[in-house]
Amino acid sequence: MYNRLLILFLFVMASSNALKAQFINDLSGSLESQITYYTDDDKVVNPGDTDFRSNNYLRFNYFKNKLNASIQFESYIEEALLGYAPEFDQKFGFSMASVSYNTKHVKLSGGYLLDQFSSGMTYRSWEDRQLGINNALVGINIDAHLSNKIQLKSFVGKQKYGFDISDGTLYGLNSIFSLGTKFNLDLGIVGRYQAFESSNPDFKEFTNLYSGKITYTSGSLYTHIEAVYKGDDALVEFGNVIDSRLFSGNALAFNIGFFKPGFGVDLTFRRMENMAFYTDRESYANIYNQLIVNYLPALTKQHNVGLSNIYVYQSQPQLSFIAGGKAGEIGQQIDLYYKFTKKNSWAEKYGTVLALNYAAWYGLNADFDLENRQYSADFFKYGDKYYTDLNLEVRNQWSKQWRSSVYWIRQFYNKERLEASSGTVTTNIAAIDSHYTINNKNELRFQLEHLWTKDDKQNWVGGLIEYNFLRKFSVYVSDQYNYGNENEIERIHYYNAGGSFRHKKTKFSLNYGRQRGGLICVGGVCRFVPKSNGLSFGMNLFI
In terms of domains, do 292 and 347 share one? Predict the structure, then answer.
């Protein structure tokens, strides 16, 4: 244990000293560390074989005139935190670097690059440390503004895979045309090449995604429609490439919205069929979001009510002949926003805001021949219901010091189709979240929530108390208790207590408690974390 701590201490000290080199005015950097010491208690047992784990990221950026450069190092001691991909396996190592040169009309970039085409349905290379995602393109990129009406992007390279790179190679070309003041046209192609010996004469080592998107914006109205076609690709099951079975895919997304002061509405429809796409074909079954080429988040509301994330939806773009078969998803989401403005009304006096959201997602209606691995799907016909979320939020500003939000959420979750488990779950959740500003430097927050269901693990109750003072310190205690579980052993308090300290661009945090286990989601993309217990320390330093 002491050796591990010494290694980490030296790493942090060396990083801090490097970041203090402000005599280089064009250099900036950051250091992020998350350290957890996992422990057992009478309810939760550490699922790993290593008690001490940490994720550490050291990054430097250099900006000088037309030149930008960056380099990042990562350290995982003794191993990466629970729920992260095993490919993050080095005590300390080079992670990525990039350099770019900008002129008035052209930007040339090389190295480990982060970018996306359009909405990301065909291509997105990005990093999210909380999710354990770093799908940077290892290659070159050209971004050219040929005029104020035409922009072209192109790239070629492999993809970052932990401290290694992918076997497959990616390439892409995207063009954006400005058609007057209201219309934009976006056309693109993204392809993958991966060598593979096949006896099937129809099998191709190249697989392409073709996309088109048109956007219209006028005053308070905006809308877009986007279509993607995926060329024939091999079926992958349990990491095995079945090249005798080739399937194409497609996606269609439509969005329209209208807003004005005090009112807004947004509607999204999306259909996806066989749209999962990885740089290496055999990575199809990985659970760590590694080597994903395209960005297909769940289109549901991202709640800040903790119990709403027990039954959380992940998008279902994949084709599978397992557990009855799935070909993709189809569904929609609508958001409504209204702020009362009628003079002298009770609601106007307290600044009442109503936010209504409804999302409903289904499988494609399809016929499956499971034995021969064949299927046919209707285009606009809905199949099995996967998930729905109907929720209402009411926000009020009761006084200069006190504001609150009240939530009601009703969810349906199909465990059989989404988890290959059994049964369905229908929940009702009520919650209140209140903030009381004591003065300009101190604030108190409390949250209380309850989940009712007769299904699965049944009822939960949760709460949070947080106190922020002097604009630098924050302390909190929270708990989620599954008191309704029929199995008494699983009636567990998932308690947590901790705090943080901020000073200028530095933040330290400390937390002790239990991790409920399940999915952690950011922006509609999730990673699985196991049930655990431990003491965690975090540090973020920017310079």
Answer: no
